[in-house]
Amino acid sequence: MIRLLELAARLPGTLLPFAVGLALVGADWWAALGIGAAAVAGYFLSAPLGRLLNRWSSPRNLLLAQAVVYVILLVLLIAAVEQQLLWLVLVLSLGAALAAPAERVCVPNPRLDRTAVALSFILAVVCGLVSAWAVPLVVCGVAAAASVPVLVMLRSSGTDQGEAGLSRPGS
């Protein structure tokens, strides 16, 4: 069960670029591509930012704070997508990608990272085929709001991996 939660906690960061591009299907394709690229850039920059923040706070506090900020930014992002405010969507998608829960920094696992990217792509393709344009954005928010707090609580209570799963780098 802990592996499924770890996968679900990685999903908000990997699904966001696909979700933003899919949500902007009614806008210009170049704008959707550019905003998706900004979300990808934010996702790649989130790992060094997560490592930096992990030095000053505990991994548990980092993951919980990032989940809260991510969900707030995602709600604003969904509203901006519905209003087709492309400049605001660009800023919010970059911010949400930077604030994606740093599960891949706290507990590195390349196999789960690859699985999360593949699952994100499959989910985006399926939602695109059934014309559910905003569903991946909602899935991002639900995954961050549900899986990250449960995962942190399970780790802090000692279930399965215990505190070893949330250790600081270098300690």
UniProtKB/TrEMBL annotation:
Any transmembrane segments, and where?
7-25, 31-50, 62-81, 87-107, 119-146
Domain of life per record: Bacteria
Natural source organism: Nesterenkonia alkaliphila
Q: Does the keyword Transmembrane helix feature in the UniProt annotation? A: yes
UniProt KW keywords: Membrane, Transmembrane, Transmembrane helix
This chain belongs to which protein, by name?
Uncharacterized protein
Q: Does the keyword Transmembrane apply?
A: yes
